[in-house]
């Protein structure tokens, strides 16, 4: 590549050059992605269209002073926002206006996410707290000498406090996984053994709800991972299958090796946790791994859920360079598939 | 400005060009700020010094393929981190390597801040929660029929639950102020009236600790603001003066109009809340407005504090386009000064 086009290609932002004839004289690939593949050579008025940007360019073409303004893009439902930098340039090859688009979307979303997070945490805490405070007051007053009431209230208080404790624990766990997300865990973890111990722990819960769980362990499959975290992954998936699969539910867990998984580009292993419960409406599936997202908040709360389980699962799977796939046919059941890179001899 | 220098000036990142003689042929102001004012014309090896960056530039000079690497800067104790984009350019004026520095510091800090925030919130909640759960268990077991113990425990439980409720309320309040920070509040608020009602509310607390508060209201001073939020500001400042000023403390509150405050560049008003307590070590002063920061965590907790008060004050003052200044002489007392723009006739 030569000339100003080579300079634009070297700028790590969407950038374009408007020549003295007010036409788009050069672009870089990021600018074409943002504004459309066919904008080269067009008059800038027909290519950019947002009044603030047009005014800034016109003014800078006229007085050569640099300017800054905003640009909003929305592509297939996703909103992005940019700070647009407009500057006059004058080189032997050409002169005109250089327009650079600085992407602010991620930064703005981070701020919004933090606010949503605080609002969600506060909301989750407020309900049990209000209940606790109410019971404390009742015990101090009207129920003061009523032994039966005291016992019952203390039981509920314990449940509410345990729910809050679980929320705090899950929040910390999520935060820890996030902070380690770039550090790939490298201990060999035996997959069937891990799943086996999860099932052992969850047996009482499954029995209580009349769930049958079928699992055929496959010996000798190891993944590079963190044993505690992988245990958390399968605990949440199986717990969900028990909780949301309904009574008399059959749960199947299978392990399958993949010689060269397309998405991992390496030997992998797929674990499928399948239930025959009511399933999940496809509308909800893409959002299940968001923090606090629940299809039926009331039902999840009733079972002591915090809505953080699948968010933690997703981050742990990411940290293991794996994939989580969720599929469901309403009325027939759901399948949560975890694909992980397999331990290979060269890693030993 | 002309030539490639004008192009570099139009790029909203630190950027420089290395010519075929391996010397720095052009820079923009952001690059000089980052790398030093004297780098123009120097050999790139002496100006850039970080091995990864040097290797990337050498390779791109040789094979003309674009590259990406990292750069860490630390300036007066502040660490910044950059993604460095290296690309070969070839224009009629010159050829060589364009190096652009994309600043990632803010994004990385945002992620780190969120993790710290979660860790802090969890930590603050865990202590009272553990206490609550312990008392519930004790009431269910050993203290079951001991009326006196029950009364005492319920009292402590109420305090702990109230502390958690306050934390949740303060978190929400902080989050709300942050999300509105760009929307300037525009109602005229009577300053002396606001402070007067704050003092009325805090009178019992001051009396309990033997504090005297002197305040001379100044009539007719209004600021464009949000009355509830300004009330929160002065409540926290006076509450702090009472709590941390010690017994027998004298607190003075003064209002002073500023005809044209230098930092506000407009008519302003300064409110000073001064105490004659033990004061604050200068080391701590810059950090007092951080969330959860306390000089003496134990002492603050004892008084039911969450360490969010001054963080909320700072954000409210920012939203009002004002300034918060903290000064203190250990052993003599502290002064918290809030400067706000004054309501002017043209705003009516
Ligand atoms: N196997 C399943 N069948 C039907 N719905 C499911 C299934 N697994 C998860 N869900 C839905 O996804 C939501 C999110 O699951 P997630 O594990 O993140 O939270 P939770 O189970 O509600 O709470 P927690 O895991 O913190 O106890 C659940 O509330 C439920 O609505
Ligand atoms: N007037 C003062 N004199 C001495 N130290 C002070 C004074 N005001 C604040 N501080 C110190 O600054 C810290 C932060 O104050 P801040 O108002 O943010 O939190 P807090 O008072 O501890 O809790 P909260 O305001 O949430 O009840 C306090 O914990 C205290 O150590
Ligand atoms: Mg779950
Ligand atoms: Mg305070």
UniProtKB/TrEMBL annotation, chains A, B:
Keyword Membrane: yes
EC number: 2.7.13.3
Top EC category: transferase
Gene Ontology molecular-function annotations: ATP binding; phosphoprotein phosphatase activity; phosphorelay sensor kinase activity
GO cellular component, one term: plasma membrane
Pfam families: HATPase_c, HisKA
Domain Histidine kinase as annotated: residue spans: 120-344
Compartments (UniProt record): Cell membrane
Keyword tags: ATP-binding, Cell membrane, Kinase, Membrane, Nucleotide-binding, Phosphoprotein, Transferase, Two-component regulatory system
Protein name, UniProt field: histidine kinase
Organism this protein belongs to: Roseovarius azorensis
């Amino acid at each position: 590549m030569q000339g100003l086009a080579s300079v634009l290609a070297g700028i790590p932002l969407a950038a374009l050059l408007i020549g003295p004839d007010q036409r788009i004289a050069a672009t870089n690939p990021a600018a074409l992605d943002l504004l459309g593949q066919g904008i080269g050579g067009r008059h800038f008025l027909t290519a950019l269209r947002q009044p603030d940007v047009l005014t800034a360019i016109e003014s800078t073409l006229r007085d050569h002073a640099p300017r800054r303004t905003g640009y909003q893009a929305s592509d297939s439902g996703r909103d992005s926002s940019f700070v647009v930098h407009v500057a006059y340039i004058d080189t032997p090859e050409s002169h005109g206006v250089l327009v650079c688009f600085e992407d602010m979307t991620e930064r703005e979303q981070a701020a919004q996410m933090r606010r949503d997070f605080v609002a969600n945490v506060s909301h989750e805490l407020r309900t049990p707290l209000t209940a606790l405070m109410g019971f404390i007051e009742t015990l101090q007053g009207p129920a003061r000498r009523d032994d039966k009431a005291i016992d019952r209230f203390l039981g509920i208080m314990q449940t509410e406090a345990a729910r809050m404790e679980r929320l705090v624990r899950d929040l910390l766990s999520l935060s820890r996984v996030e902070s380690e997300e770039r550090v790939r865990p490298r201990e060999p973890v035996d997959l069937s053994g891990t799943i086996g111990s999860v099932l052992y722990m969850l047996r009482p819960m499954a029995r209580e709800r009349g769930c049958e769980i079928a699992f055929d362990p496959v010996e000798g499959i190891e993944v590079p991972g963190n044993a505690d975290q992988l245990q958390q992954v399968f605990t949440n998936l199986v717990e969900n299958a028990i909780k949301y699969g309904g009574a008399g539910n059959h749960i199947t867990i299978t392990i399958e090796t993949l010689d060269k998984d397309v998405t991992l580009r390496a030997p992998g292993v797929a674990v499928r946790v399948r239930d025959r419960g009511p399933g999940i409406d496809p509308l909800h599936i893409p959002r299940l791994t968001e923090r606090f997202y629940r299809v039926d908040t009331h039902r999840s709360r009733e079972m002591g859920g915090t809505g953080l389980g699948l968010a933690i699962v997703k981050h742990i799977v990411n940290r293991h360079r794996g994939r989580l796939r969720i599929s469901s046919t309403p009325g027939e059941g759901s399948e949560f598939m975890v694909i992980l890179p397999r331990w290979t001899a060269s890693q030993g």
